[in-house]
Amino acid sequence: MRVLVTGSAGFIGFHMCLRLLADGHEVAGLDGFTPYYDPQLKRRRDEILRRNPRFSSHRLQLEDMDGLKRLYGAGFDAVYHFAAQAGVRYSLENPRAYLDANLAGTFNLLEAMRAAPPRHALMASTSSVYGANAKIPFHETDRADHPLTLYAATKKANEEMAHSYAHLFAIPVTMLRFFTVYGPWGRPDMALFKFVDAMTQGRPIDVYNHGNMKRDFTYVGDLVEAMARLLPCVPAAPGARDGAPPPFDSLSPVAPWRVVNIGAERPIGLLDFIAAVEAATGLKAERNMLDMQQGDVPLTYASTKLLQELTGYRPATSVEEGVKAFVEWRRAYAEGAA
Question: Which fold has domain 2-186+217-265+299-318?
Answer without folding.
Answer: Rossmann fold (3.40.50)
